[in-house]
What we know:
The complex is a heterotrimer of chains A (214), B (326) and C (718). Chain A has 214 residues and is of the alpha+beta class. Chain A is 41% helix and 12% strand. Chain A has helices at 2-6, 19-26, 29-36, 38-46, 51-57, 81-88, 144-151, 161-173, 180-186, 197-210, and strands at 60-66, 69-75, 107-110, 113-116, 129-131. A five-stranded mixed sheet of chain A has the order 2-1-5-3-4. The longest helix of chain A has 14 residues, at 197-210. Chain A starts with a helix and ends with a helix. Chain B contains 13 helices and twelve strands. Chain B has helices spanning 12-19, 33-38, 73-78, 80-85, 87-94, 99-104, 107-112, 118-121, 163-169, 187-190, 271-277, 284-294, 307-323, and strands at 5-7, 24-27, 46-49, 58-61, 64-68, 173-178, 181-186, 209-216, 223-230, 238-249, 252-261, 268-269. In chain B, the strands form three sheets. Chain B has a five-stranded antiparallel sheet with strand order 4-5-8-6-7. Chain B has a four-stranded antiparallel sheet with strand order 9-10-11-12, sandwiched between helices. In chain B, helix 5 runs antiparallel to helix 9 (163-169). Chain B is globular and about 60 Å long. Chain C is globular. In chain C, helix 8 runs parallel beside helix 15 (691-703) and helix 11 (475-487) runs parallel beside helix 12. In chain C, a hairpin with a 6-residue loop joins strand 22 (577-588) and strand 23 (595-605). By secondary structure, chain C is an alpha+beta fold. The longest helix of chain C is centred in the last third of the chain and has 24 residues, at 514-537. Classes of the chains: A alpha+beta (214), B alpha+beta (326), C alpha+beta (718). At the A-C interface, helix 5, helix 6, helix 7, helix 8 and helix 9 of A face helix 1, helix 3 and helix 14 of C.
Amino acid sequence: MENEKICPGTLQDPDLQDPSRRNFLKQSSLLTAVALTPVTALKAADEHIDEKIAGALEKMPLKMEVNGKAYKLSVEPRSTLLDILREQLDLTGTKKGCDHGQCGACTVHVDGTRVNSCLTLGIMANGKKVTTIEGLAKGDELHPMQEAFLKHDGFQCGYCTPGQIMSAVACIKEGHANSEGQIREYMSGNICRCGAYPNIVNAILEVKNGGLSV
Amino acid sequence: MKQFTYVKPATQALALTAIGKPGTKIIAGGTNLVDLMKKGVTEPDRLVDINSLPLKEISTTKGGLHIGALALNSVVSENASVIKLQPLLSMALKAGASPQLRNMATVGGNMMQRTRCVYFYDTAMPCNKRAPGTGCGAMEGYNRMHAIFGVSDKCIAVHPSDMCVALAALDATVIVTGKKGIRRIPFTQFHRLPGDTPELDNRLAAGEMILSVEIPDNNFAKNSYYLKVRDRQSYAFALVSVAAALDIQNGVIKRARLAMGGVAHKPWRLLDAEKALIGKPATEDSFKTAALIAMQGAKGHEYNAFKLKLAPATIVEALKHASGLV
Amino acid sequence: MIKEATISAIPTSADGLSRVDGRAKVTGSARYSAEYKLDGMTYAVLVGSTITKGSIASIDTKAAEKAPGVLAVVTYLNAPKVPGYQVAKNPAKPEAKSGPLKVFYDDKIMLNNHPVAMVIADTFERAQYGASLVKATYNKEAHDTKPPKDLSKGTEPWGGKEFSRGTKDAWQNAPIKLEQEYTIPNEFHNPMELHAIIAKWDSDDKLTVWDKTQGVKATRGDIAKVFKLKEEDVQVNSQFVGGAFGSALQVWPHEVAAIIGAKVVKRPVKLVLSRPDMFNSVGYRPYTWQKIGIGATADGKLVGITHEAAGQTSSYEDFAEGPINTSKGLYACPNVTTHYKIVSLDVGTPTWMRGPGEATGAFALESALDELSYKLKVDPIELRMINYAKTDPDNGKPYSSKYLDEAYEMGAKQIGWKDRKVEPAQTMQNGWLVGYGMGGGMFGAYRDKATVKAVMAADGILTLQTAVSDIGPGTGTAMTLIAAERMGISPDKIKFEMGESSLPDAPMQGGSATTATVGGAVYDACTDLKQKFQKLMGNGGADKLDYAKILKDHNLPSLDVTVQSSLGADGQKYSMQSWSVHFTKVLVHPTTGVVKIDKVVCVADSGTIVSPKTARSQIVGGAIGGIGMALMEEGVIDHRYGRYVNNNFADYHVPVNADIPQIEALFVNKPDLQINKMGAKGMGEIALIGMAAAVANAVYNATGKRVRDLPITADKLI
């Protein structure tokens, strides 16, 4: 078991054709050396001598742009985009409500489309542009959707709100905000337990009918 | 989640090499796989991300519509050719999941998604599909969402897809590739019944991957409807869903296609009911007769017996919509 | 009374002042409990038992301990002793129940998913994987999770004893009568924010937590008690709370676990419950069986109501609520008999969930009244008016205010009640059956004690401080509006500080009492502060004051007051209640049984509306909670295993946007000057109470099918 953890993919692995894997091995000669001598590493991990070696071996480089800012990170492949945003980048506006794609609180835009960041492996966002709620306003000037949510009270506790707003912006961009009924259907991937749905619909209608750029 | 290695092969050949190893899973949209990995239901040693492969295309060719395995559910559902030629598929896709999930989920992944049976999802529960030989928790348990057709004593789970119900009705073909080359599998044979091996959802062999799906041209575009009955108006799995497609000429049904979701381990094609519709007038009476035929062999269990009434009602309603009676 | 509160007859979502904390919420800068970044943060994940009753035979933590990043695995075998858990046992008088679940205390398993271990690691992913490596074996005992079907089992909690006003079971002798049974399943608060806590020991005997709680002071007190700390050495912060609806009214085992964990690893520990964990760790609305016998004279005068109820509780802790209360007091009925029991099962302890027992009770009573109206051939609203209580039937006291009759009228007009066909299953609309229904409720209008510190600074900014939490209703906004009116200043000159236990005392946010309680204290504090300024001026006459100028003229940096305020002694003379009525129009598909809510009108008699925008949202939100209760919410236990099988948002359905039409929330908006000087009563509970019956009654009107076992799913209508 331990062996699998410490020696992820060996050097003769054909998948090392993949550029991200090559980069991973290039980044540290120490890691390469350890990978070539698994027994040493195994022992190290067993004795808790160098947690960092074992840890780093499980990590991969991740380059992505979040809210216009370029990030170079080192992440475990199993880390979700949601956990990376919240725990590593301290962008806690994106919320965890279920962690299984069942509530929409984690909705962000990846390359302009709305997705559930809880089911997106961070590593799969490599090279992509991510927009979170923190990236919506222009400085002090709120995005029209944020203004509309304020005006129409599209929230109570505020926890689902970032996901709702990211979804609402996408809803209009996708062309799915042409009627109340269509908005309701296309906003159904975002659960609000406080029950702000009608207000959310009103906020989206206001932005849509106002013809403001989203 | 167990740690795994992640590779993203740049070519199909590399991908096939990569997926050939035991303990490997393909990841595309990840909406189902990541969910299952978080729950510990599946614990691959290695993920092969196939998103670099050129399998996103949707094209019309002579005789049919060709949809790449990596085409997103949302993209397919909004595609002009799909809406024009195969509106049933668009409707079914839009009835599934949520806009966000449809933006991630791929056509191939949708086919490969696993059951939503709650016993399958909970590793503390018995489940022959997840852990063969442990028993079926749902058979004598909470089986409200479960199958009424094709149940074996090993498994009562249903396939959760909406898209697949439409593809089964539309006589699609799945094109897969592996070390031995390309294979074409009729859609209705792609998924399987549980039998003695409920751990196998479908007939994709180890080391194979889906390339695309093809839908032959038809005359159903005018009279197609996908009706999904669920516990809330959106973002819920089907209690029962029906894909109905009719070719009606002068009020008489020339061809008919019917398939149900939420009732079996695979999208449940209703061939006998289809036959019963052919040559009949497109009336509620014809539909009721077909629905009765469709239900032959259905068997209810403690919590899902209501489907014996709901399913035929949904068939009739879907056919009424498809034929323009509603 | 309050200028901003001038609201139109049919309020819109744009009316009134926007939330004072709204900007933080729409920009993502509002930080909830799990969202504070601390140096050396660690992550804890709980491991739950896979059996329901028995004891731990063995627990293997070796693999988890070896896993990368894991810092500690805590079990009952190695957990540091929690001082408050070590209760001296009195063998002469053994306690029937051991009380709140003691985490990592012993080998006993009291419910399925009982925490048996906690893995702490340097990242969440590693903690979660570590948790999957912990393997426990158990000595299994037979469990019982099956809820009651009558009153034959169980015990009578306080207030549960058989009670009769007038003649016992008098309904049986009425000319028109019915007796029916009702059940509601276990329902879950499921706030969108997962319950979370960050625990950090500042020293051996000083603790700071960032915790999801509805009451920072109460949580501080409970934690201090459990860990035998001085209250002032425990700091509880809960700046933003992502919903709760009752689930954060008490300290739960996971909170204690995180504090234990922080002691073990000597670093801050963040523990976020998973959604499945939320189904048996933070309470729920308990399954309740009810039976109502109700009888009336032929002209609709109620003769008697007998209301029996049996709810479930845990084997280790009693939980009782008020399902039978509404039957005692909603109508002028001379003869009322009630009997309430709780049945101990091998499940988690329930807790108050929005509307609490009154919502459970109102579903049964208001369904029964509707059914009676059909038997009597009397309009349901008329039946309620025939039996309208002008004084509290339970204690004879006058009401501090009651305008429920006006609420009936407003709602009936708005929903188009005249379109309702008296005979069920008579109306079709585009192939769907149409039905109208109504149901109402009441909930005590409480005012507790609160202290507010009000500080006017030289820059003209008024800061109000009190240790209340805001789980969503918009407390800061309402308090700001009250202060703005009292002080004669603009709301943007007011800062409302809350959510920290170091602030002046305020009660929990619960029982619909915050606006009346804290608002009353804000009102009094601002009144006193203004008087202080007026005294300083010497004339005491001027109403509009330039506070900044006065401070400058007197060379003062600030002026402040700290005021404690509560209900006056006169309050006891009155019965204080908030009232609501809900009207729904539903569409039911005749063959598939699908129910669509087509129209909803809710009317609240909750005194003066202090904050129109947030008040409207609160009513709308409660109505949606009631729609969930009526149509889809149901926690399911597989009794063979005693384990929840739908403990997630995919299988436990709550309403989504597509389920909900525009909801009209109307207010009588007449002050109740007995409860506080603003005239404001609570509305959090009444927003939901009666809604499930309104839906069920509309479904009956549409279909002729009376569903008495919630939720009303399609399978029950075909």
